[in-house]
Amino acid sequence: MSTRLRPGESAVLPSVDRATRTSWLIWTTAVFVYFAAVFHRTTLGVAGLEASERFGLGPAQLGVFTVLQVGVYAFLQIPTGLLVDRFGPRKILTIAALLMGTGQLLFAVADSYGLGLVARAVLGMGDAMTFISVIRIVAAHFPPRQYSLVVAVTAALGGVGNLVATVPLTLMLGSIGWTWAFLIAGGATAAYSIIAFLRLRDVPDGFTAPKPEAVPLKKIWPKVRQAWSVPGTRLGFWAHFSTMSTPAVIGLLWGYPYLVQAQGMSPKAASSTLGLLVIGAIVSSPIVGALFSRNPEWRMPIAGWFLAFAFAGWGVLLLWPGGHVPVPVIAVVFLVLTVGGPISGVAFALARDYNPSHRQSTASGLVNVGGFLAVTVAALGVGVLLDLLENLVTPQTAFRVALSFCVVVLALGGWRMLVWWRRARAAVFAAEERGETVPVQLRRRRWDALRVA
Fold first, then answer.
1. Model-level pTM?
2. Could you read off the pLDDT of 75-95 as tens digits, one per residue?
3. Interval 123-134 mean pLDDT
4. CB 94, CB 42: distance < 8 Å
5. What is the torsional sign of CA 122, 123, 124, 129?
């Protein structure tokens, strides 16, 4: 598994030695778009109960809002990667801000379930274009040694958008109401697209932007297949699938209803508890990013240990005697689970390390599909189970059974991540034996000699 290009391939991204002040300003401009994306993505995490009342929805129908939005996000990741490779991140981020603003404005005035679904789909389209574009900005404007750290800081600052979508949004909904809260959020995002268009740059000053190369439809699938065939890309897919799904399902939709309906918390206490997910991510993201940057060989072991702690956390929440979990215990479990968000950044480092630069956005789109596919499946499964159990058992029992589906999704992702971890290691060792340069030096372990599943 080498970063060396094949004959006839050429890199399209500049390789900078250090980040300049202008690079940081451009990155900051891009991060504000990502901040907005995370805010809009997580609004239903605290507005879910209001949405149920506004549109007259049951749990399964409420889950469709998130499933649709996240499903659109996941479906568009590969096309987004191709679009960023073709048109550059500046144009795509501008369009993303416009779409997100439009979607939220439409959601503000929606008075029917169908119109609400259309609004969330438009929002999902804009959201889908954001993160891949931002990390392409990072790859172009920062040296490789800073990549993991800057991506981690990006995720942490995006988490501030999640924080704004908890307590402050809850207060806005209670004071100025649904329509004005979402009108303000959508209008500000749409207006910011002008700033993004004017201030963003695809490449640093002094570098010439590569001439866009059109990819005919008949060549799109081969390009995607090439990225998918790389063991590092496949490992990134399953690492993102496993590490991201747990905190995202809790934060995006089901955490708030679980805390209010199953644990008996007040809306304010529930939103504050959900804020721990965000605070934990903001604090841990730079730490995890620094560890990954300085010790890339630790990336997958850390991801593996997180899965072990995630299973333990779910065990505490779902198996606590009587079902009523003490608030301090919930807080500790949430803080442990939230680290999965920063750790999921390992997926993009893998896509960057093991793919040529002209295919990095496509590979990043592929690995990003993993996490959001897991969230889509888990969120829908929990909603369906809650709908089936609504009139049969107590809310505590219903949530214990329904959230168990998240553990099933986590187990599937963990199994496949371990399989592709071994296959990726085998590919690295094979590349070293051929005398090729590999991005990460690995030590052989006894289990590397066993047959790969």
1. 0.73
2. 888 888 778 877 889 999 999
3. 90
4. no
5. positive
